[in-house]
Amino acid sequence: MMSIQNINVALIGNPNTGKTSVFNQLTGLNQQVGNYPGITVEKKIGFCKLPNNFKANILDLPGTYSLNASSIDENVVIELLLNKNDKLYPDVVLLITDVENLKRNLLLFTQIKDLEIPTILVINMADRMEYKGISLDIPHLEDQLKTKIALISSRKSLGITELKNLIVNYKSISTEPCLNASTIDVEYFDKLRKTFPNQLLYKLWLVITQDVNFLNLERNEILNSYTKSHSELKKLQQKETIKRYQFINDVLKIGQKIDTSIAKDLRNKLDRVLTHKVWGYVIFFMILFVIFQSIFEWSKIPMDFIDSTFASLSSLANEHLPAGVFTNLISQGIIPGIGGILIFIPQIAFLFLFTSILEESGYMSRVVFLMDKIMRKFGLSGKSVVPLISGTACAIPAIMATRNIENWKERLITILVTPFTTCSARLPVYAIIIALVIPDERLLGVLNMQGLTLMFLYLLGFGSAIISAYLLNTILKIKGKTYFVVEMPNYKLPLFKNVAINVIEKTKSFVTGAGKIILAISIILWFLASNGPGKSFENAEKIVTEKHQQKNLKLTSANLQSEIDSYKLEQSYIGILGKTIEPVIKPLGYDWKIGIAVLSSFAAREVFVGTLATIYSVGGSDNEDTIKNKMKAEINPVTGEKIFNFASGISLLLFYAFAMQCASTLAITKKETNTWKWPIAQLIFMSGLAYFVALIAYQVFK
Amino acid sequence: MKTTVDLLHIGDKALITYVDLDKIPLKLLEMGCLPGNELEVIQIAPFGDPIYLNVNNGSHLAIRMETAHEIEVEFIAK
After folding, report:
1. Which residue has the higher pLDDT, A613 or A68?
2. Which of A207, A303, A501, A522 fits a 20 to 30 Å CA distance from B21?
3. Smallest CA–CA separation between B29 and chain A, in Å?
4. Which domain holds residue B69?
């Protein structure tokens, strides 16, 4: 039997050409998603069986318009194609194009051809040719472009078998370039050719013009021998682009016929409505409403289910495992920790479902178009709308969604202000405090005060994001590319398979990525709360029992146990920490117990209620009534006032509205900005603002 | 009639005659905004910016007016 042969295949193409659909068609669910080392660009590899005992490793590269890179995503493409030693260096490139936009797509094709890699021209969405009045002269195109062409439709699974056959026979594809771009400056390129006779001319040109990682020695050697200034190089790049377009125009003059009288245009009609100055906004806000509805209402049921499942798992573990430190770690540390991650799955999945449908359908570009002018007034881009909406569920995927903002300043501002939007983790905190300190009365007989407060907090979130963006815009002195180009893709019915794979993959990476941090922190917190230095912690049971015997009080054993637990907590590491920070938080109206809850919330906000629940020894946070009553009953031993009064409640609400209390958000900001500078700035600015506002609020209302 | 893209109206068709290469990002050239190619204005956003173009009968994109101002065109038809 013949041994199996592996072929490395790279998928390259413009965005919106259905590249991912082709990838999904070839590989099914047989894919691995990871990251390129050191950067957060997604690396997707899939596997595919081919005829004649061949197998393909298929690499889905980020979408790019050309080999002139302008983002880290695009750099990945060039770095791979320049490095023959890379394990994934393609034996054959599938260049995916959209039949409706062949002219522009061929620009990238001619560049890849210059690298002398066998390249198959895959013309996707071929099923729409008739509809758009397009006819192609395939033999002429194959001859002129020196390649093989596969006409396919990834949506309708057409031409995939033929494409697989072409991949198997990749060695028969010409590696000859289809045009000679070096005529843009004959003298210069002749000199280059003579200096490096063993190197590919276009490869040298890419090394000179692109800011990419390339074998260092070689790069320096090449750079030393070129004598052009930056602006001369830029002019040459422009000449190169024009030259390539001239060639493509000539080829398509014969190879492509478009009868515009047959072409039917649904997109124009849709565009007229969806970008209309009134209807455009009405439709956008209706869609927003549906998204919020799903995130807050429809996710409740699965979230409650997950919550109660983990609560019962916890008690199950407690009952059935032998008592001891290890069981405590499992039932109080790990199970609630994992539950704390998994409870966000319904919201995150809904969010990804909607964003993925909106992107797949092409609608998102229209929103960007509608909102750009308004957002720009605040130093943001139309493209910032997407992260700001996503931020109401969770800032982590929201910050990842800023990647397509090409202007670094606008992107950075978006990353920095997104955590102000009211994320789902703030909800449990808001809910319990509002119930405690805001009277359940109606204003003017109609408006519910508690509901109004919650709405106000949401508006406060958006408002502070926008205002901070405005401030950052005036403070930050960053110069960069200031242009803005959005492709307005054709409207498409989202493919179920693409959406499903996207939702599953993104949710999975959220759970494992962010989850690891949340899990680690809950274990640390549990450890700090259940261990303490010195004898008073170890002998808590004895000390408390003796104290009660002295006072001759009769307590039920449950009450005694809860007394012991709170005493223990007070003597634990976290209790000592709470006592230490008490002077700092006292001016805000908090006692040391709230201090601990606030402090532990710096890992993740939703820890607040759980921490208080532990502190007040009433068990799980599910039993909100009990914890609420306990909180209500807390009295300041010095003044005799309630701990949770109107002043301290408002102070807490405002603190949680502003403070940067989310380790995972800080981690993702670090990842996306590649420096600790910005997450630290976020932490200091947001938490400083929170402290300041909470301080003023308490001092005014007290 | 010579003009620049930012001065066109919805539905106008024009031929690109000159782009200021120092002010236009390379990306825009790559998307087809170069002399000799045709464009059509599909839509202008509600507050007058950005502008949504169909370049080269197939490359649909939106750019800001400041960029559109750098693209000189010859007006063809409405």
Report:
1. A68
2. A207
3. 7
4. 2-77
Instruction: From A75, A125, A80, select the one nearest A98 (Cα to Cα).
Output: A125
The full length of chain A comes to 702
- What does the pLDDT read at residue A614? 62
Q: How many domains does chain B have?
A: 1
Cβ distance B42 to A481 less than 8 Å, yes or no, reads: no
Q: Answer whether A368 sits within 8 Å of B62, measured CB to CB.
A: yes
Q: What is the pLDDT of residues A160-196, one digit of tens each?
A: 999 999 999 999 999 999 888 888 888 888 888 888 8
- For residue B19, give the CATH number of its domain: 2.30.30.90
Confidence of residue A333 (pLDDT cuts 50, 70, 90): low
Question: B60 to chain A: nearest residue by CA?
Answer: A488
pTM for the full predicted model: 0.79
CATH of domain A5-180+229-258: 3.40.50.300
A382 in B contact zone (CB under 8 Å): yes
For residues A638 and A13, which has the higher predicted lDDT (pLDDT)?
Answer: A13
Answer yes or no: do B47 and A66 touch at CB < 8 A: no
Cβ of A100 under 8 Å from any chain B Cβ? Answer: yes
Over residues A250-275, mean pLDDT: 85
Q: What is the DSSP string of A111-167?
A: HHHHTT--EEEEEE-GGGHHHHTEEE-HHHHHHHHTSEEEE-BTTTTBSHHHHHHHH
Q: Where in chain A is the domain with CATH 3.40.50.300?
A: 5-180+229-258
| Tokens, residue A196 | 């490096």
Across the interface, of A245, A271, A374, the residue whose CB is closest to B34 is A245
Across the A/B interface, how many CB contacts are shorter than 8 Å? 115
B27 and chain A in contact, CB less than 8 A: yes
Beta bridge partners of B19: B71
A620, pLDDT greater than 80: no
Q: Which 3 state secondary structure label does DSSP give B39?
A: strand
Q: Does A275 touch chain B (CB under 8 A)?
A: yes
Confidence of residue A623 (pLDDT cuts 50, 70, 90): very low
Contact B32 A104 (CB under 8 A): yes
Q: Give me the residues of A, 21-60, that contact B with CB < 8 A.
A: none
- pLDDT above 50: residue A1: no
SS3 readout for A35-68: ECCCCCCEEEEEEEECCCCEEEEEEECCCCCCCC
A271–B contact, CB cutoff 8 A: yes
Question: Given this model, what pLDDT does residue A218 score?
Answer: 67
